[in-house]
Design a protein that fits this description.
Blueprint lengths: L14 H12 L12 H7 L7 H25 L3 E5 L6 H4 L7 E6 L1 H13 L7 E6 L6 H7 L8 E5 L8 H13 L6 E7 L1 H4 L5 H10 L10 H6 L3 E6 L1 H7 L10 H4 L4 E8 L2
Parallel strand pairs: 1-2, 1-4, 2-3, 4-5
Antiparallel strand pairs: 5-7, 6-7
Helix pairs in contact: 1-2, 1-3
Bound molecules: S-adenosylmethionine.
Length: 276
């Protein structure tokens, strides 16, 4: 039975409902870029995300394209361990065809994890890999929590950091990348999203910042060169322009990532392999 749960996500965790709502909408597309049968039920359990409709209108198509980008990165990595940082209402454990023997860890704030587990239970969701939720605050000692949950630093890992870094102060983002790298054996992969300063300062983003500030989900950081940032932590990275991604999938370039409309403002989509 579907129901609105008692304690829907609040604060920065509420942004996870926004992304799930975009994924749910994509299911009505004639040729969806991915299938996510659980997204609508998760949004329903959270009591809808209509307060964030303005953000979704602006960035919904980007959320869809980035979902497909990271799906493809994770599946082509085919590493036996997957760690999804700030997983939110991500349902990749349930919807992607993982190789046999895959273990997938999902990290997020304890209250979000609790909500998600209750909602998935109500939706009778069954994972397609071994799935281990790890409630933690990524500004604290999440690495110990991950190891305690069964993560093995000697196994090659595919890391995903989607829709996270902008919400963290620069030093917290750096610390996360430090520990991700320290826990990565050679051949591990990483995929991330971040933005540059020009993107944060776009006039089109003002209303988004106001909305997020009201949620207590302020954007706190940016990066000018993600390839260099990742290289400083031992990763060999490449960046995909969101406009190229849209072209690859025969979709219109979302206005928020269209160079003709936003100039040098960039949402970074990067993938990397650990070289040390
Ligand atoms: N990656 C998911 C996706 O794309 O669907 C969720 C992205 S959502 C925009 C941001 C997520 O970051 C939320 O689920 C929120 O709870 C999580 N988050 C933000 N700050 C966090 C922190 N300090 N520790 C753990 N999770 C955090």
């Amino acid at each position: 039975m579907k129901r609105v749960l008692q304690r829907p996500p609040v604060g920065v965790a509420r942004t996870a409902v926004l992304i799930a709502a975009a994924r749910a909408t994509e299911q009505r597309h004639l040729r969806p870029l991915f299938t996510d049968p659980l997204a609508a039920g998760l949004v329903e359990a959270a009591g809808s995300a209509s307060d964030l409709n303005g953000v979704r209108t602006l960035a919904g198509e980007h959320f869809v394209l980035r979902t497909r980008y990271f799906d493809d990165q994770l599946l082509s990595s085919a590493r036996p361990q997957v760690v999804i940082m700030a997983a939110g209402l991500d349902t990749r454990a349930f919807r992607l065809p993982w190789p046999p023997g895959t273990t997938l860890f999902e990290l997020d704030l304890p209250e979000l994890v609790e909500f998600k587990e209750d909602a998935l239970h109500d939706l009778h969701a069954r994972p397609r890999c071994e799935r281990i939720p790890v409630p933690c605050d990524l500004r604290d000692d999440w690495a110990s929590a991950l190891i305690h949950a069964g993560f093995d630093p000697n196994r090659p890992t595919a890391w995903l950091l989607e829709g996270l870094f902008m919400f963290l102060p620069p030093d917290a983002g750096d610390r996360i990348l430090y520990w991700v790298s320290a826990l990565s054996t050679r051949g591990s992969t990483l995929a991330l999203e971040h933005v540059n300063r020009a993107f944060r300062e776009l006039p089109q983003m003002r209303a988004v910042h106001e909305r997020f500030d009201a949620l207590d989900a302020r954007w706190r950081s940016d990066v000018e060169d993600p390839v260099e940032w990742l290289a400083s932590h031992g990763w060999h990275a490449s960046v995909t322009h969101p406009a190229d991604l849209a072209a690859r999938h025969e979709r219109a370039v979302p206005a928020i990532t269209d160079p003709a409309k936003v100039g040098d403002a960039r949402i970074w989509l990067a993938s990397a392999i650990h070289a040390v």
